[in-house]
Design brief:
CATH superfamily: Flagellar protein FliS
CATH topology: Four Helix Bundle (Hemerythrin (Met), subunit A)
Order of helices and strands: HHHHH
Family: Belongs to the FliS family.
Keywords: Bacterial flagellum biogenesis, Cell projection, Chaperone, Cilium, Cytoplasm, Flagellum
Helix content: 55-70%
Number of domains: 1
Number of strands: 0
Subcellular location: Cytoplasm, Cytosol
Distance between the termini: 19 Å
Shape: globular
Structural class: mainly alpha
InterPro entries: FliS (IPR003713), FliS_sf (IPR036584)
Mean pLDDT: 84
CATH architecture: Up-down Bundle
CATH class: Mainly Alpha
Low-confidence stretches: 130-147
Largest sheet: none
Pfam family, one: FliS
Oligomer: single chain
Strand content: under 5%
Amino acid sequence: MNQAALLNRFRAEAVATATPAKLLTMLYDRLVLDLDRGIAAIAADDRAAVNTHLNHAQDIIHELRASLDLDAWDGARGLMDLYNYIFVELVSANIARDAARVTACRDLLIPLRDAWHEAAASTTANGAAVPAAPAAAPRAADAATDRRIGELGVA
């Protein structure tokens, strides 16, 4: 088995065995990475890379929106509104090649990512079962598109 195949197998197994909280933090980490790469690609005037990274970020936002249980907690509607705003901003930033818009989205997402990491770590450190997250952990497959979480590059 070559190196690429081993890496793909590792990623698939990491996603398949991850807890819901871990999946959520993996998605947020990859989302921020895509935004960073998108910003760098805009600076380098690499249109293909900009499109690739910002489209991938949009895919992750879509998955976060699709998995959000609006009835799970009072703040869910606000989080959905934020996801919707970020999605629209990323589409517009991709069209206009606007690094400032991508940076603004990234700046909104960093505190959320950090909060999810903190919540996941505190539940794991306490040995407690991870409760159902307000953002509902992403499903193994999106019923509408039948895309696997691993295809989002979260490992």
